[in-house]
Amino acid sequence: MAKRKSDWFDWIKAILIAFALAFIIRMFFFAPIIVDGPSMLPTLHDRDQMIVNKFNYRISEPERFDIVVFHASVQKDFIKRVIGLPGEHVQVKDNVLYIDGEEVEEPFLKDQKNKIKSYQTLTNDFKLEDLPGGYETIPEDHVLVLGDNRENSTDSRMFGVVSMDQVVGKTSLIYWPFDRKKILGANE
């Protein structure tokens, strides 16, 4: 009888440890997220399921074109692409991205840019100064984010730069649906 009690106790202890480890991993390292809406098309599709790396930005800084998840409100997280980094000036003119006055290619928009006609606009012209906050350069510990679907994205053009305190983490792994499973690179 004592052996049976000991076995049950060992099983309960193992299950509790497993739950504790899962909780710690989810809270501090990795978490699933589901893409909600078309703002990152064609890179990410509505209902794509991804893994967010919450640990990455604790040991490194964001890089241009990282795809990040951030708290847009208490109830809602957004997924967007980092375009501008701290200390930079960002401008888009005639569908061309300029960082500190230098033209920067956006390889993930290549197909979209090839499909538009000369009189169409993929990204409406803007300068950092025109955005909420009116900054001349992106402040320390902030990033400027845009959706890949520039015509249908609520992003820094509407709400301004994003504080790194709001950033949950970086995401690059689509794990569901299975036929879209892949790790995204900077060109995607």
UniProtKB/TrEMBL annotation:
Keywords: Hydrolase, Membrane, Protease, Transmembrane, Transmembrane helix. Belongs to the peptidase S26 family. It catalyses: Cleavage of hydrophobic, N-terminal signal or leader sequences from secreted and periplasmic proteins. InterPro entries: LexA/Signal_pep-like_sf (IPR036286), Pept_S26A_signal_pept_1 (IPR000223), Pept_S26A_signal_pept_1_CS (IPR019758), Pept_S26A_signal_pept_1_Lys-AS (IPR019757), Peptidase_S26 (IPR019533). CDD domains: S26_SPase_I. This is Signal peptidase I. The keyword Cell inner membrane does not apply. Its EC number is 3.4.21.89. Residues 9-176 form the Peptidase S26 domain.
